[in-house]
Structure formats: C-alpha cells, structure tokens
Amino acid sequence: MCVYGLTAEQLNTLPISMALPLWEALRKTRYRPPSSAPRRFYSLCGRDDLALTIFGTDRTLNVTESYKQRNEMDHEAQTSIAKLYGEAYVSLAGRAKEETTGVGDPRVRHFTDIRFPEDYRLREVETMLRSSRTCVIRVQDRPDTSDHDLANEHQMLIMRIAERTLSLPLGRAALTFATVPTAQADSYTLPPLEFAVKILPQGSVLNLDGARLTDEVRYWTEFNNAVAAALRIAPATKGVDYSWIILLSKPPELSSKHAGFIYGLGLTGHLRSMLPFQAFGYLAPKHNFTTMAVLLGLAAAHCGTGNETITQMISVHTPALLPPNSAELNIPVLTQTAGLMGLGLLYMGTRNRKMARVALREISRKDLVKPGQTDEHRESYALSAGFAFGFIMVGKGAQSNPADMAMVQQLQHLIHGECPSIDVFKYQKPNFDVTVTAPAAIVALMLM
Question: From which residue to which does any coiled coil extend (predicted)?
C-alpha cells in the first residue's frame, strides 16, 4: 500500500469487502511495526508517534508558534466540573438504559466495534428492536378535522405502532441469541415494552386505549418478551439450574413473564437438570401459562428422547393420551394444545406409531369442548396435532411400510374430504370440517 501511495482517505472510499482485509492488515501491523519502514508507512498504520521518534519533525517551531500551540492545548484541556459531571451522568444513564433494553450487549458491542468500526448497520438494528423508548411521530396538522375525529385517528395510529412493538421480541430473540455466556444476576433482564407515543407538533404523549390492549394480548406479549430474554443465555452456559431460576427469577406469584422465561430456558436445554418434583411444583398451581411453558420447555430440553417421566407429565395434561374410560379432567384447550406439541417434540424422529396415531386422531377430533362452550382454539389444536405427527414421523416418508401408508391415506382423506360415491351426482359430505383439518394434515404430510 505504501509503494502504490494508498492513503487512509482512499481506503475509506473502497467497498467494505475490499477495505476490510486491508484495515485488518494495518491493525495487526500497528502493534509490531518494522523499524526500517518509510515514514508514510507509520502514518498509514496509525503510528505517528514512531514516525516522530525515528524521523523527528520536519521543521522547527519558533517561539510564537510554540506559544500559540501550547495556548490552544491548554484551552482545549480546560473542562469545567459541571461538564465532566454531566458527561458522566449521561454515560451512566445510557449504560443503565442499555442494560434494560435487551439489545446492545457490551461484550458483543466491543467485538463488533473492533471488527467493523465504521459499519453501523448492527447499531441500526439494535435501535429498531429497542422497545423501551417512547416512539415519536409527526402528524400533519389539519385544522378542518374535529377533535373527536383527530383523537380516533391518533388511536388508530397508536394501535398500528403497538402492533409493531408487539413483534419486537421475536426480532430481539434472533439478534441476541446466545450472547450471554455466563449465568449472572443480570442475566434475567426483561426489557420493558413502551406503548406510549409522542405526537408532534402538539408534543402530547398518548397511551394505547385499554380496551384495545386486552389482558390476553398483554399476557402473551409479556410471555414472548420473557422468552426473548431467556434466549440470550447461551446453551453452553454453566450454572443455570433450578436453584438459579428460583433465586433470581421466580416471583411470589406465577406470571406470564416467568412462564416465558422458563420456556426460553427449555428451548436452550437448561431444563434437562430439572427433577420431576421440581416440575410438579410449577404444575400444581394450574397456572395456564406456566403449565404450557413447563410442558413445552421440558419436551424441548429432552427433544427426541421419548423420556417416560416427561411423557407421564404430558399425559396428565393431554386427555388424548389417557385411557378411554378415564375421568374427565377440566383442562383448558390451550394446555392440551401445548401438550400435543410437546409430545411431538419429545418423540421427534422416533417413528413411534402409537404416539403418531394419537396425534393423527386428534386432527379431526370433534368433541374437544363441551356443548355450549366456545370453540375458538379448535384450529390451533388441530394444527398442533399435525405438527406433532410430523415431528414424530419427520423424514420417514421414504421408509414407509404398509402401516405408514395407511396413515398417509388418512392424511389425504383429511385434506380432500370424503371421496365421492359411485353415483357422480351424489357426494357424501365429510363428517369433519375440511377447512380445519386440511392445514394440519398438509403440515403433517409435508414433514413426513
């Protein structure tokens, strides 16, 4: 680079794919530069101190210039106590805010700042996924609009921004996955979700209407936010066991936040050491979110093992696995849905036909709820059964035997409905809802 006269300004104009190896070579040379290099080399690699030591200065300064430079240096060095205090306060406040946002881990930031000092795309992604700041938007001022219509428009706008905020934990989970290598007290950090919006030019801060943000939506949002926080802990992190969970994160009363954190730890395999009596301590209060999180988390931690103890826990909360004449248990449909999904994870790739038949039968189940009750989770239940069947038989389609082909025909039956009779003018109506069973059967057949 010195031979061809390449300068640092010219390096900045190159594409990052070309400039990166050159900057890396300069960075490595900076620590142990050769002593016989030309002056231009030391300037290029950022070692002007060595250039002055070896070659000296190009000219001598007179008394006036020396006094002028010294005066400028003294003027720059004079900093008031108030300015120093303000800078320290801003720095500490920013650091505390970064620790509660869930993004911008200092360890990851330090690495990326060294490797990519002028690439700010990662910082932009962190800014987009930061949910703890109040969103500021500018609305065009229209004097002809009434106050009532303007308030409705603002609420609709806030609702759209809230929908975006609800999706931020998913992106944050992907960005910060496995970025915490050690189990510390600050590993359990739930970044807040701010739904307030500041409207400009009025400058008013408006909150989302409580009727639009229902309790169910809020609980699921807290659940997803906690899952994203738990996924920050790396799977290889040591010391994340039941005692650590109880000491740092378990609240006095079970909540959707703690349930999401438990589920996230299960996804990273940290629930393998949880003993049965410890799991039953979470299942006994019959908190829906916690029950679903424990069943799915344990199944994910023991994925593909077919563990009998975990199977018994899932069976207690999944009536489809109980004998036909068993007593009816008042189990919510969502808990049964989580049990079926956990069954598929636990027996993933095992080709266990007994469990596969159970999942296949549940796709077209009609007596899911008692007469008079709402059937709003019927599609979720059927789709979960389809995924469970697909997980159990995943990748086994090429090894199908006659018994498996019978299940394939039943899946085709659930997709297309009843076959027409011999009379072309008559069509036998299926005894199940094809719009519910078809998506689940397609997923099962695709995974198989």
Answer: none
